[in-house]
Amino acid sequence: MIYGNIIDWRSYALARGDNAPTAASDPDATASLQRASDYIRTRYVIRLGLADDDANVIEATYIAAGYDLATPNFWATTFTPAQAKVLTKVDAIQWTVIDGGASGMDAQLPTSPAIDALFLGKRAYGFGGFVV
User: Fold this and answer.
1) Across residues 32-48, what is the average pLDDT?
2) Residue pair 6/21 in contact by the 8 Å Cβ criterion
3) How many Å apart are CA 19 and CA 17, to the nearest integer?
4) E-strand spans in the chain?
5) 50 CB contacts (<8 Å, ≥6 apart)?
6) How far apart are CA 25 and CA 92, in angstroms?
């Protein structure tokens, strides 16, 4: 399952000044789009019960594919919670571990604020109430 397609991804990227998907070979672009789709499917689509053709799913896939094209298998990188840190002191360099609010396996995966923002307000994000 691939969300979106190469032609639309290239147009999406070009509209934002990114010609990397256009410059990439079709096999490389397809592989990045596939890995991005895998990431979006397992992290968002399945969890949130989203449709495969949801506009946010496709846009998120294009964003994720850009990261993957720049660094193949970017979304397969795992981290420990201790690796989430910010520079808090420059002189005699000091880093402080931050709590990004993620837990379990989510704390060990790379994230993108742009992708997460597309899914804010969906069932698994936040603690908004629903009225039926």
Assistant:
1) 95
2) yes
3) 6
4) 85-89, 94-97
5) 44, 56, 57, 122
6) 45
- The single-letter code of the amino acid at 3 is Y
Q: Torsions phi, psi of 26, nearest 5? A: -60, -45
Extract the tokens encoding 6.
């190469």
DSSP string, 54-86: -HHHHHHHHHHHHHHHHSTTGGG----GGG-EE
Distance separating alpha carbons of residues 10 and 97, to the nearest angstrom: 37
Q: What 3-state DSSP class applies to 94?
A: strand
Q: What is the pLDDT of residues 66-94, one digit of tens each?
A: 999 999 999 988 766 666 666 787 888 88
Residue 122 has pLDDT above 80, yes or no: no
Angle made by CA atoms 54, 37, 99, in degrees to the nearest 5: 90
Measured between alpha carbons, how far is 60 from 119 in angstroms, rounded to an integer? 9
Vertex 62 angle, CA 19 and 128, to 5°: 140
